[in-house]
Automatic annotation (TrEMBL):
Species: Culicoides sonorensis (Biting midge)
Ranges for domain OBP47-like: 45-183
Signal sequence segment: 1-19
The protein's name: CSON000102 protein
Gene that this polypeptide is encoded by: CSON000102
Family label: Belongs to the PBP/GOBP family.
Subcellular location: Secreted
One GO cellular component term noted in the UniProt record for this chain: extracellular region
Amino acid sequence: MNFLTKILFVALMIFGTEAAPSETKDVNCHHIPKTALNTTCCMAPEVISKSVIKQCEEDAEGQNYNEVMKECVTTACVIEKSDFMKDKEFSQELLLSHIATSLGDQPKWNDLIGSAVKTCIKKGMEQHEKIIKMFTKSPFGINADECNPVPMYVANCVDAEILVNCPEKSWNDEKSCNSWRRYLSKCDIFENIPTIDLKVESANLE
């Protein structure tokens, strides 16, 4: 399960606000697809060590955190253990260098994932205060003094960018995957989460 899948699952379990629907052409951003997002929609190469992710997830599970806070500290842990920090600050340069090394013989994937990282880090920097404000509110309840939610936002954004731009040869052409790809290509899930009646949407999932 990738970061985007996890955060959507958590949101579906805990959110429940209503708003009048608004549409982006044929996609209503306040109604998520009726099928759950799965991890086999885009068969992207792994660029982060599974063992590092597993260790960080296990460390987070041992803490008395809610599910979103666990994702936040897991993301921070992965960044630190993967040596993406320079002078105690996250380094885009180190991450992009790691991606290029991991995908040395796959230039198309390197370009796609590298572009997603740059796009999402830019969004994270531009919306820094907005992101923190959203995730510290109930029901997410992240303690920003203990964990900065912006890296988690960026990780989810990267997952979404990869899914939307996944090469056709690596794409799982199933109805559920196509529905999510269409939704995420039109809608920013984080901007729309507060206006989705997620309790209703969760009940409608097939």
